[in-house]
Design a protein that fits this description.
heterodimer, A: mainly beta, 4-stranded antiparallel sheet, 9% helix, B: 130 residues, mainly beta
Chain lengths: 148, 130
Amino acid sequence: MTRFRMSSGFDPVAGLLNLQRELERVFDKPFGIDLGPSGRGVFPPVNVFADKTGCVVKLEVPGVAPEDVAIEAAGRTLTVSGKREVPQPAEGSFHRRERGAGQFSRSLQLPTDLDLGRAEASYKHGILTVRVPKKEEAKPRQIAVNAA
Amino acid sequence: MTQQELNVPEKQETRGELTRAGRTYVPQVDIFETKEALWLWADMPGIDEESLNVHLDDGVLTIEGQVDVKQYAEMSPLYTEYNVGNYVRRFTLSNDVDSHRIVARMQHGVLSLEIPKAERAKPRRITLTQ
């Protein structure tokens, strides 16, 4: 499997094109990640990346306040649940209603070499990012050669 | 109230030719009208105040957001359900809005716009003279 990394210090246009191409290439091809009975069209959509330290899970949750999100790790399952509310003005009328509201919950099974116990989550501009580091024993290490 | 399962349609790509390269997506919106104003909410995850551009030109309201792809450096995708791209959407407004008093806010990846109506467009009660 060939993968290339996005390098830092690129120009923004080429960077975006590269990223979009990369994201498209792996659409619907999970590698060792079990998403259960879910998939596209389910809220929130999820992208999973690998980096040097482990795995990065990104979920698009626009309009969901960070305090309305619960993240749970059990074994190798990561569950993100919460609710999204949209404004409900008392008087007036809607011309368009495209944004959904309600409860959501998604679970994903992550590869076994990750340490969910040390996962960290952050929220920025409607994107929830969960970083899951590799287990210590799964990290590459140098093995010294002893002279006989 | 019964619990409602939240389902969203997939991100929709912008049709037509744009001057910028790459895929561009149509943010989903709610538009609401009261006596005083039009309200618009648009889902634009990943967009902050600096990368947002809202302008009204000749009665056409354009909302645009440029994504920051720097955060994706040094990462390689394993599994993806959504693509990342800039956002753009245009709306034609009637002339009866007060374009100088439009208020834009960005919170949790949602743009909210308050577009006040011009005085002449507000509903008035007409009193009968005896």
